[in-house]
């Protein structure tokens, strides 16, 4: 009888332990570093064997601007390669400013890049940029990079870091490192579907040309820009907004 009671007690103890394990809360995904999140000790501007096998291609070799040129062939002295980064100089350090963009054009892709911004800084990365207009932002949607808190001018929710500039707002609880520290961003474009990621977390997804997109465009800075978001293929463009920014580990995978 005592033996039976012990067996029953052990059975209920095991059941309780199993229940506790099953009910354990899931880890917050925002705290998990993705393979694209900058990791201390990793060598910048290099691909692993696994990434090469997956089809990734480096867009920046860390040494020079091979594979890059300036928008519409403009003169420029604001971009330089320093310490393995593409560095956009501050306002006082350059007089000939222009966006830096890839020589090649891309249609469907996954783009990953590390970035950091100076205090009060403003920059961004555009995709499917064409050169039929005076400015790249009149064709290419922009992944915003900015000092959300310190930028001296008004910053609306659709103009914060990670947003699709003036169209779709990044969530307020996004996982972002402080000004002066490295972050990783990712843009995924497949057909008309676009995703914005920040430090391993998807911020949002939108669809070019959808009714929602058209409504947002009509209420944005792009309401009179007929070519905005219309190109099916174009250049990757890194914005020179007159403030200091750094980029590295820029890689792309065609989808």
TrEMBL record:
InterPro entries linked to this entry: AL/BT2_dom
A Pfam family this chain is assigned to: 3keto-disac_hyd
- What residues does the 3-keto-alpha-glucoside-1,2-lyase/3-keto-2-hydroxy-glucal hydratase domain cover? 55-253
Protein name as catalogued: DUF1080 domain-containing protein
Recorded source organism is Chryseosolibacter indicus
Which taxonomic lineage does the organism of this UniProt entry have?
Bacteria, Pseudomonadati, Bacteroidota, Cytophagia, Cytophagales
